[in-house]
Amino acid sequence: MKHNFWHERWQNNQIGFHLTEPNPLLLKHFSTLDLQPKSNQNSSTRVFLPLCGKTLDIAWLLLQGYRVAGAELSQIAIEDLFYSLNLTPSITKLGEITHYSATNIDMFVGDIFNVTPAMLGNVDAVYDRAALVALPDEMRKTYTMHLMVLTNKAPQLLICFVYDQSVHAGPPFSISSNEVKQHYQTTYDLTLLTSKTIPDGLKGKHPATEQVWWLKPLH
Description:
Largest sheet: 9 strands, mixed
Structural class: alpha/beta
CATH topology: Rossmann fold
Shape: globular
Oligomer: single chain
Number of strands: 9
Number of helices: 7
Mean pLDDT: 90
Radius of gyration: 17 Å
Helix content: 25-40%
Distance between the termini: 33 Å
Strand order of the largest sheet: 3-4-5-2-1-6-7-9-8
């Protein structure tokens, strides 16, 4: 997608993808990753959310005692996020990326492809609810390869939509089980944790299912 597409969505508050509560699938399945939350200030258990927006999932993860990092194109989204968390960030320019940080949280504003492993630092797990499904087909292979390099092949909790792509142009895009395997099966052991019908369909119109995958590194 063109950057302007997402900037315009945020500027015009066309953010139907933003949930007004933490994602129930996160709450139900996050424990599958078997992470240890921080027990003291020296703990470094850290979760990365690509294309995170201002999701309330971040507040939930912080409350569970995890450190959180995210990458997001929209400055509006990240400013709203810190405001909602009642945090005043330190702001640093890192080339094309702007780094917003506060206790236990680091947000990298800009094109995720400009975020480097050195900028991001250690990641213990990835929670991808909004990134893979937001990118068109021609970008998804590049994204998944970049994500694995960026996070040193950290385990993932991945949420995807599956529906007839001919009835809706996306985003969100339909990501089939076969596509998940094409991107990740050489690096991860893939487990489909759940596949459930969306009661009202995608955008209240199109029959769809929502899938949750656990990606466990092979080595």
